[in-house]
């Protein structure tokens, strides 16, 4: 059986189209699609459901952040919380490796989301919690706890000093310069994290747009 010959012009179109396809596909591929995540980084929510544990994020400025959510409470903070009768909190820690970062990184806020849309916010341990737990020295020269409990001068002075020491110890623990490493301790004003998590939003550079961490492998 014989086949009719393909016209020369048509043959050239076929050949040129086949040869140009790979390059054309490359040229048409999006370069900076924000929905495309690199390892340890998600610029948008993944719409997946996962449980508590270890999460990681490589920020757009190159900082590598590994978070444990929830984390065991630091013994000194938890002992002080119990001593002053503050409400239970949940802790998280973050290891920050900013050796490849181009600017200082700071753990301003971490927000968890559950399938019902509830939020669970972790903030700096010192500013948002320790600084509020210590006794207040009133105009009447009395030390009072937040619940109104009066303390004798000796106890009040001791707790006030302990509060100041802890505040200074953990203040800005998550602020790490470029080329450096550090660790952050953060707290959430809730007793436990949700069993199902739909997002971990990290604000590592102030109140700008968050970046989203993903579960570690």
From TrEMBL:
Q: Where is the signal peptide?
A: 1-24
Q: Which UniProt keywords apply?
A: Lipoprotein, Signal
Presence of keyword Signal: yes
Domain of life, source organism: Bacteria
Name assigned to this protein? Lipoprotein
Q: What species is given as this protein's source?
A: Arthrobacter crystallopoietes BAB-32
């Amino acid at each position: 059986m014989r086949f009719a010959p393909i016209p020369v012009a048509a043959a050239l179109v076929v050949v040129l189209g086949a040869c140009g396809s790979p390059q054309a596909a490359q040229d048409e591929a999006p370069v900076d699609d924000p929905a495309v995540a690199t390892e340890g980084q998600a610029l948008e929510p993944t719409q997946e459901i996962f449980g508590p544990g270890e999460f990681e994020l490589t920020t757009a400025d190159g900082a590598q952040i590994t978070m444990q959510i929830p984390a065991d409470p630091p013994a000194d903070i938890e002992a002080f919380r119990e001593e002053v009768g503050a409400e239970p909190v949940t802790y998280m820690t973050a290891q920050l490796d900013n050796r490849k970062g181009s600017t200082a990184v700071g753990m301003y806020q971490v927000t968890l989301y559950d399938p019902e849309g509830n939020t669970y916010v972790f903030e700096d341990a010192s500013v948002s919690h320790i600084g509020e737990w210590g006794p207040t020295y009133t105009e009447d020269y009395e030390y009072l706890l937040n619940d109104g409990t009066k303390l004798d001068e000796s106890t009040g002075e001791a707790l006030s000093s302990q509060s100041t020491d802890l505040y200074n110890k953990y203040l800005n623990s998550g602020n790490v310069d470029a080329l450096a490493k550090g660790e952050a301790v953060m707290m959430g004003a809730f007793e436990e994290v949700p069993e199902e998590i739909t997002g971990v939003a990290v604000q590592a550079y102030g109140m700008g747009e968050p970046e989203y961490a993903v579960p570690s492998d």
